[in-house]
Design goal:
Length: 186
């Protein structure tokens, strides 16, 4: 099967972080008293944290006008979460802002092999990678689009991707390499 045709086993997006900046400052102290599920503790952190249910997300706001969404499971939901949060606040409902940008996307998948991965073989062939079992139970592989955590069970996490499309492409390429090397090493 070609790399392009490789089906990703159990691929899913587990977290998307998106952000934008609105065209005004935000009185987060005032909002913290008016919004349900909002927390603001300036002695600990300078941002307002607001938990929302539709779509399920955490909105983070700063007095500078920066607004972020954390915890959604798709790029679309991350952008919708920001739009709905801004529209839900009367003082911000007519605020202008650029399309939210994906800052971080976390995805997971499975290599789909019925055996444990040979990290000695993989770390020597897949570069740049690091495997230090005394420090961390996974092999780390840094690509130009993010960092992969590869576990001996075959589970893989990708942190730092900027789009679902790129995450899928990079995950397919890496899984194809791992499968190929694992067959040769058998």
């Amino acid at each position: 099967m070609t790399k392009r045709g490789l089906l990703l086993k159990d691929f899913k997006i587990v977290n998307v972080v998106a952000s934008t900046k609105i065209d005004r400052t935000i009185d987060i102290e005032l909002l913290s008293t008016r919004l349900k599920q909002a927390e603001y503790n300036p002695e600990i952190w300078c941002g307002l944290t607001w938990r929302r249910s539709n779509p399920k997300s955490t909105i983070i706001m700063f007095s500078t006008g920066k607004v972020s969404s954390v915890g959604t499971r798709s790029e679309k939901d991350a952008k919708i979460a920001i739009r709905k949060a801004v529209q839900a606040i009367p003082e911000l409902s007519n605020a202008r802002y650029n399309e939210p940008v994906i800052a971080n996307l976390v995805a997971t998948a499975d290599v789909g092999l019925q055996k444990k991965l040979d990290f000695d073989l993989l770390s020597s062939k897949i570069k740049p990678s690091t495997y230090e079992p005394d420090q961390f139970p996974a092999m780390l592989y840094r690509s130009k689009h993010g960092t992969f955590l590869i576990f001996s069970s075959g589970k893989i996490s990708l942190v730092g991707a900027k789009s679902e499309q790129q995450a899928k492409k990079d995950m397919r390429n890496l899984i194809s390499r791992i499968r190929s090397l694992s067959k040769k090493g058998s």
